Sequence to fold (395 residues):
Amino acid sequence: MIPRRWLVLAVLVFARIGVGFQFIAVAALMPSIKTALGLDYAEVGLLLGIFMFSGVFLSLPSGIIANWLGDRQGLWIGIAALVSSSVLMAWSPSFSVALAGRLMGGLGAVFITVIASKIVIDWFTGREIATAMSLLGVTWPIGLGLGMTLLPLFNGWAGWRVAILLTGTLPVMALLLTLTISLTAPSDATETGGETAVESAPRSLWNIGRKEFWVILTASLAWPLMNGGGYVSFTSYAPLLLIERGATLETATSIISLQSWFFVITIPIFGILADRTGRGDLMYWAGSLIAAGAIAMVPVGGPILVWLLLISLMGMTVGPIMALPGDVLSPRSRATGLGIYYTVYYLGLAVIPTTAGWLREVTGSVPVVLWFSAACLAISPLSLAAARWLQGRRA
Fold:
């Protein structure tokens, strides 16, 4: 029989795919949305970044709300918000309404992301934590890949508003899946594998020591620099470079969507290797620097497929960085620490794509945006190194 923790992980993976699918809709449909709503690139960048802005304020409260209502009910809040977002965005007559729809989607994203991470840490700490987190992390590129592949096709067939409505279908299916299995981890060893999945810990809003606070705060900078800078900014604006070179929207988004599908392969493979070798930090450094170099070369020229393959080595970073809170936080500080971790993550994912859009508007240059993306990715390992230094110091 399949251990129940893997069935729980499968349900969470499907729910998280819906987050990435809806997030990338603005990038996948950028020319159509920009024209229909009369936007400039700075406003488009804000629509991309604002999706993550809710997490700045809700990452800490979402875990507390889940403790109060239960994990399943917390996920339902997130799913309902994603569905509402797709409807509001699809019928938006103006930038302000579209912005409200994206904020609603961001609320759903933070509830699903934080609660899913909490559930996985509850089930897998002391077991295959990097593997499990890499599988949860691979949902992001799967969602982005589906969005970059399918949404432009639906845009061509039925218009961008119908394509936006499509982003509400996966959350509805995720809702049905959450009805099929209990998501709460056992408090004792009920599965083969023996270790306790959840340890008793106070459920207060703020329960973290000074040293752990600074370690998790410093470490939390690495993820948005890698994801928002190195991945989201590149995936959102690289199609514009190909369009400038003569590709159609559908062709450009299809080519860049290959990046996401390469991640589907590399993220779980390197997550398993991180568990097997214990060299997650080294893999983070290698993946970040190789991928940053490849992103910087895309505007220069050369075979785009080769650069995309090298950028996919960024998959080395996902399992280790998502598993990091389980490594640096005690069970007592887990709820507060995860809240801090995701607060910084969402703040970065709100600010960095918005900055990329501002750069595109000010400079009129897509290569400048891609070089900004590469720079963010190149400096992200410094945050991890600083966190490890702080972790090694005496309290």
Remarks:
- Confidence is low (pLDDT under 50) at residues 188-202.
- Residues 356 and 369 are 6 Å apart (CA to CA).
